[in-house]
């Protein structure tokens, strides 16, 4: 009896006490660390990163949602970065092949003695 009075309050049942304990245990894990006073949060490096399509900073761009769930990047300019030349095959998405597919392509070129890169 004395143990119950010392350990529990009379404002709930065992179920609510369990979740109160879980909250107290997890709150320090999910709270953000206190920041020094007077300092603003650091600027995001993502906003200053150049766009892979036009080269302008990403904060100048907009994103549009299509009804099908696709997100479209809208560049602020019609300028585009020059595409680099790719030697070798492309994958099924039209991008330069990499990994095992590129290794197999090179092995095939060596086996046929071809110097041609498609």
Summary keywords:
mainly alpha, 118 residues, two-stranded antiparallel ribbon, 7% strand, single chain
Characterization of this structure:
This protein is elongated. The longest helix is centred in the N-terminal third of the chain and has 17 residues. A hairpin with a 5-residue loop joins strand 1 and strand 2. It is built from four helices and two strands, in the order H-H-H-E-E-H. It has 118 residues and is mainly alpha-helical. The N and C termini lie far apart (84 Å). It has a two-stranded antiparallel sheet.
Content of β-strand: 5-15%
Average pLDDT: 78
Number of strands: 2
Q: What class would the helix/strand composition place it in?
A: mainly alpha
Low-confidence segments, ≥5 residues, pLDDT <50?
Answer: none
Biggest sheet: strand arrangement: 1-2
Helices and strands, in order, run as HHHEEH
Q: Give the N-to-C terminal Cα separation.
A: 84 Å
What proportion of the residues is helical, as a percent range?
A: 25-40%
Biggest sheet descriptor: 2 strands, antiparallel
Contiguous helical run count: 4
Round the Cα radius of gyration to an integer and report it. 29 Å
- Label the overall shape: elongated
Helix and strand layout, with pairings?
Layout: H1 2-7, H2 14-30, H3 45-48, E1 62-65, E2 71-74, H4 100-112
Antiparallel strand pairs: 1-2
């Amino acid at each position: 009896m004395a143990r119950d009075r010392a350990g529990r309050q009379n404002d709930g049942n065992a179920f609510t006490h369990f979740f109160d304990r879980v909250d107290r245990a997890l709150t320090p894990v999910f709270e953000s660390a206190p920041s020094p006073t007077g300092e603003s949060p650091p600027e995001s490096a993502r906003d200053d990163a150049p766009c892979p399509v036009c080269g302008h900073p990403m904060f100048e761009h907009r994103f549009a949602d299509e009804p099908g769930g696709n997100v479209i990047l809208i560049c602020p300019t019609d300028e585009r970065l020059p595409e680099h030349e790719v030697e070798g095959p492309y994958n099924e998405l039209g991008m330069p092949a990499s990994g095992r597919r590129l290794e197999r392509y090179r092995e095939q070129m060596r086996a046929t003695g071809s110097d041609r890169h498609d």
